[in-house]
UniProtKB/TrEMBL annotation:
Pfam families the record matches: APH (PF01636)
Domain of life: Eukaryota
Name the record gives this protein: Phosphotransferase family protein
Classification lineage: Eukaryota, Fungi, Dikarya, Ascomycota, Pezizomycotina
InterPro entries according to UniProt: AGP_Transferase, Aminoglycoside_PTrfase, Kinase-like_dom_sf
Domain Aminoglycoside phosphotransferase: 61-363
Organism (species): Stachybotrys elegans
Coiled-coil region(s): none
Amino acid sequence: MYAKLRLKCMQKDDLVWEKLENDMDEWDASVRTSDVYASVVAFILKHKPGKGKKMHSAVRGGYNTVYQLEYEDGTSVIMRVPVKDVVGSSEEKVLYEVATMRYVAEHTSIPVPRVYCHGTAKDNPTGLGPFIIMDYIEHHQNMSRALLDPKRDIDERPVLDPNITEEKLEYLYSQMADILLQLSHLQFPRIGSLIEDPRDGSVFVGGRPLTANMNDISIHTNAPPSVLPTRTKTYSTAEEWYRALSDMHMIQLAFQHNDAVEDEDDARDKYVARLLYRQLAIRGQLFDETKEFDGQFRLFSEDLRPTNVLLDKDLKVVGVIDWEFAHVAPAQFAFDPPWWLLLLEPEDWEDGYDGWMKAYEPRLETFLRVLRAEEDKMAAEQGLDASLKGLTLQQGKPTEKLLSERMRESWATRRWMVNYAARKSWSFDFVWWRFLDQRYFGPNEVEDHQERLSQLSEEQKSAMVECVSRKVREKSEAKIVHWEDKGAAGLLESMLV
């Protein structure tokens, strides 16, 4: 049975991956010429005048290429541009990221880079596309490096050092806890991404919640933008957003042409899992407490992890970078325990999800202990009697539960798995059948679609047959498909029964 469950985690399209890697290599070569470096220097100096000393070689990350200009006074500025073809909505991403950084800088003590200028591709004379020009934060290392197992090869996936001292772990975790605690206090009236009002610089929820998963769907399945939420779409309730997230899982299955299914049985499993999850989302049955949190939407940064937290030589946080895909989300997302305590996500753990959870739990206890201490510290600093148990501050007023208590509840009830499944289309199938299906629908010894056919209407069963036939046929037709809006809309409608 375990071998079958392994197949339920969908792989990304190999043909698309291969093309993407070739495109990235071409992009990388084109943005490292002497002419490009010269134009970047001139552009940076226009917005941050001074005497330039050294232009560092460009560094390509997961989503961005970064140019660093060092000045004679020892300071540095970077220009950060999204990597072509890796980000589906690069101008949108830049707009949201800058607004988020400025809001966080104004409303918290979290150290974020100062932004000098940002703009669209037409605002950038270097020809490199949308950009952000901001301070380079001097640092000794990132937190991931400080937590890393030194015995692992540099090419291996990063894993928390099993022999790290409790004192060092508590010190690093406590700083992350402070960051998460401050972010959890930022409330907004709607779900979406932050944008700046050009008239007065105020920041508000004005764009769709642009997520890493949404970007991956766009890039790795070639799903047209028309089937995803529109750019100005925001959400007034958590239920609306969970429904949109469930739709995206179906979009991923619908439009990923290659490597989507293993066989007919696997296709049925994946289609039925998405139908059931969407059904729960539509009915508002994913959480008992969903309505309790409505109107309490919080800023949630998907990429907030030790790799993006910069430290000085004394291991003190001096900067938090890479705010891409940060958005205002249902409060439940902010109340989940952070996945990065072991540095690796559960799907990347050598012993699978069960092994990950076993290794994670003692580290979570350490994190919750230091988070509780940070909560007491915050309460004391704001003049509230720290002995008030079960209370924390929200805009100077006590609320029902501490963040540490919320996180403990989320772990104990496995609520975090519901959100994890909602956010990650390529991990969805394994999490659903292994952990969530029986939570909602009762015993299912084989952990697949057979026991759930009674939950489907005749119309849904007919749609399943059509979907399975198409996915199996696509498996034998290796190619990259580009969809037109009309055809894409019709296909999606046939699956969202």
